[in-house]
Structures are given as C-alpha cells and as structure tokens.
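Q: Structure tokens for this one, please.
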Amino acid sequence: MSRSVIPPRFSALLIMALSCLWGVVPLDADEAIGVLDSFDPSGSEGAGVWRIDGENYVVRSDSENPIPGVSSVDGAVVPVLGHLVRVGYDLQDGIRYVISMQRLGHGPEAVQDGPHLIWKNATSATMITVVDGEVIRTEHTGLSDGDELPTPSRAVPMIRVESDPVCPPASLPAARRILAVSDLEGNYDTFLTFLTGNGVIDGAGNWAWGDGHLVLNGDIVDRGDRVTELLWLIRRLERQAGDAGGHVHFVLGNHESMVLAGDLRYIHPNYRFSTDRIGLSYDRLHGPDSELGRWLRNHNSVVRVGPLLFVHAGYSPQLDRLGLDLDEINETIRVGLGPPAWPSEARADLRTGLIWHQQGPHWYRGYFPEHAERWGGRPGDDALEAILTRHGAKHIVVGHTVVDQVGHIDGRVQLIGIDVAWRDPSEAEGLLHDEGRLYRVDATGQRTELAFEAVPTPSE
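A: Here is the predicted structure, written as tokens:
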C-alpha cells in the first residue's frame, strides 16, 4: 500500500501499535521538527493550519500528542510561538497532514549538543557543537593522541583526543568495591548527583574512588536530552579511574546498538532539531569517523568482575549453548555494530546475530516472570548455574527491564535487576558490591543490604 493513501488517523494508530511491540518498528519517514511560526486553529483542540519553519501543516483534531515512542518529554499543552514542535505527517496531494504532534515547551535556545569531533583524516577533524541552538564549527589540524581541545560547550569545556581506543578487558578478578548502574538514558545531572553522593567523584566532577570499579550496564543513550555530556563524562572517568588503579566499564545495551545502526526512534527531539541544523544525522555524529563513535564501538556487551557477570538485558540459556567465551561474544558484537538496523538474517540466527536476536544479550528478558513466556520460558536453576559456572561468576546483573528497586529477580539469588528510573535523584539507585557483600545504594550513599527471599518455582 502506498504511504500517500493511508488515512492519517489510521497511520497514527498503526504507529502507536507498532511502537508497543518488541522488534522492528519502522521509522516514520515523514517527520519534521522546527520553530512554530504561527497557527490558525479553525477547530477545537488546536486543529487548523500550523506553520513550522516556513512550512504549512494541517492539524486535525484527531492528531496524536505526543509522538509515540518518546517518553521523556510530555509536550506543552498550549502552543507558543517561537517554541519547537515535532510533527509526524502524511503528505497527500502536496498537503502535509499531521498524524502526530509533540510540543516541546521550549525554544531553540534550550538546545545543546556536542561537542562532536568528526575525523577527516588521521590528523585533522571538525568539531561541531550546538550552543543555545546555534551550530558552531571549528577546524583542527595536526592532531595526535592525547591532545586536549577546548570546546564551546559549557558542560564539556575540554575533550581529549584518543586516536586509537583500546578494547577493554571482558573479565577481571574480584575488586574490593564495585558500583553498578543501568539505563541512565541521558540523565546527566542525576548521575552526577549519584556519583557525588556515593563518593565516586569529587566536587569538581573528577574520579575520587581510587581502585573502585564503576559499571554502566547499558542504555546510557536515548530518551534524555543530555546524552552527549553523559558520554564525555564517562569517557573522562574511564581515563581518570585507570590512572588511579580503578576501572570504569561501559557495557553496551540495545539502545547503543540501535543508535549506531541508525535506528533513531528514541533519541530526544532536541537531537532531531540539532542534527537538522548541523546537516548530519544522529548516527553519523556517532559513526566510525567520529571520536565518540570510535570510542563506543570499542566496548563490551558482557563483562565479568569477580563474582558479578554484567549483561544489559540477560544471558539466555540459548546463548550459553553456543559455548562462546566472553571475548568471542564481545568481538562478534563489536564487528557487527553499525547499519543496517534489524537485518532479517541476524534476527534469525543467534550465533551471527547476537546484536539483534531476541535471545541475545541486548534483548533477552526471560528472567522476569511477566516476560518469560515470550522469551522462551523461565530458565531453570540448572540453566543459570551452567551460565555462571562457564564464566566463573555467582550473580548475573541486568538492566533493560524496569524494576521497582535494585534487588533479586524472581526470588533467585543468582539474578539481580538494576534498571530503575533516573529522572531525579530520589529515584536513582545502584548495586554496590563491597568486601563481598551486596547493597542497594541511593543518591545520598545510603546503603541497604540486599535481602534474599526465595520463592517457589512453578513446579513447586
């Protein structure tokens, strides 16, 4: 069916339905974000003709608000001239009919992005930064590893060039202290508060945790509007921790792999605006010729530190039956990062499609009772023990699936879930392993030892 003959209301409902499904959701090809120049509501609920960045859009009363798939912005109720509006639309006979709308509640001056360092060759690069909605480009030549470059960004005033990022180890011996968090989703300020409250960084934002290990268990990107600042912070802390005898582990999740492959459904609308102004897509700004893109592509998807095996979504029994060691899993994923998103052959074969397969480490949800049936059934204790024995661990720590609080999953001591909300410090939690004991910690550093209460298995 041609896109132009799908009724606008049906298209909106279809997109909303698809957004709720696991798996491939096609990007809406007709989408725009820009400044609201004028609107002429000729009907109820804001219906009428809206002019956005010099183009007319016909808004019907059945248009959806906000756009499905975006959870971090609730859309201002009252349209304000000069504010940003994001629209999904059907083009019919030269007329843009809005099928979904999101009013962002701020103007372009609120948009910050970058710095992004895009390499032109081995020694020269273009730095692109968006400050208060304005794109700033600076050219740099004669660059070499270790150079520090000033930037126009207030949050990231300096970046360091690392021309040849090194792949981090996938398995390390037990550490005295391990602190793990997951699914930060661009919540930069809350993360800073959490790190400060737990003594990981000092008041200047520098590493202060000595030989401690900090684990970011995937989904650092998407949804929030301060992703870039968060990535540069983690990158800097990696280097500082290493210098102090500690370690920062960035475990890749499904949203990192989606962004690197060009599946941009979940980026914050501010980034859609900034990339339109920059003239490069969001995935290109994180491509293999960008400083952040190179760095992201060198990380692992499964990491063991002492007794803790970290994987973003879950380690499935089906994955275990492949008999792969951690390095083989990580290397297979690393070489496959990038477009295309959702290749059919990768979704069909787990061994070659670890990034996209339902049983792969970026997607598997079988540990959780409410999802287990769809992901192949609840894995038995023997299956879990086989995974842990293979990799010399005692616990599997996962994010990806939201939990009420950091703690054991399904009454099983082997499984720990750590995906909690990070919108503000009152919600933030992490998992602390300190001198062999496990704790839930909040943004103030308050510890609560993890209680374990076994629950009967379904056969009991």
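A few notes: The mean pLDDT is 89. The longest helix spans residues 227-243.
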